[in-house]
Prior knowledge:
293 residues, seven-stranded parallel β-sheet
Amino acid sequence: MSPAITVGVLGATSPAGQQVLAKLAAAGHRVVAFSRSAQPAGEADAVRWVSLSDSQAEEAARATGPITVWIALCHIWVVGEHFDFMRRLGAQRLVCLSSTSRYTKVSSQNAYEEALVQRLSDGERALAEWAEGASIGWTVLRPTLIYGRSTDRNLSEIVRIIRKLRVFPVFGRAGGLRQPVYVDDVAQAAVLSAFAPEAADKGYNISGAEVLSYREMVTRIFKAMGRAPRLLTVPIWLFNSALFFLRLIPRYRNWNSDMVQRMNRDMVFAHDEAARDFGFKPQPFVLRDIDVL
Length: 293
């Protein structure tokens, strides 16, 4: 990677965004980090923060010169709001995050999840059409279940339930296979693919190095928290009966019966193409203290 390149990062305050900024700065790049709200200046001189809500955002971004490489870590269906903005600032290369939920939730009967699948697929299609029309190289990364640094919405919710209930409910055998990917590895994939010519105009599934059952994943979370695993097997019919009342609680309003079925469904995605084209090499599912705070 050339240290002379300026990289723009959208969604810079997201969990993966923080790690992307660190990796880019460590590699010697100049970075313009964009967020919807004003952010305090960071310690790294390589990172310049620009608020998208500022009417002078484009002028502030231009102060660093052309921004040729972009990494967008916001929802992929939101990236389209910034297409013209990125092109005016000199975009030649763009990496965006989508999700393997595009495939795992495609059969869901839940309106929220149906809409999510549609937004993901529409976002990917809009990106490819715009980028190809503008002669900008694009890459889509579809992570599996992202975890790590106590900043995700997946593993952190399991940790929260364990702390509150001291047990974790599972449904049926909970034998569906998972391939969790660490947030740092997602960030590394974004940075590597942004500078890999072979990754241009392609989409990749990115997953962790280890395949394990949902039950085993939860068991390891208990152990990482220093607790003896206590999994409560709940009959599926009982969960479905209680679902109406659970959805009255704002935190659980999008819960649905398909979630139970997915706990027993395999969600494994190979990352061989990412390894071949930009050297993606994820870590196994190993939890540290920072991951279960």
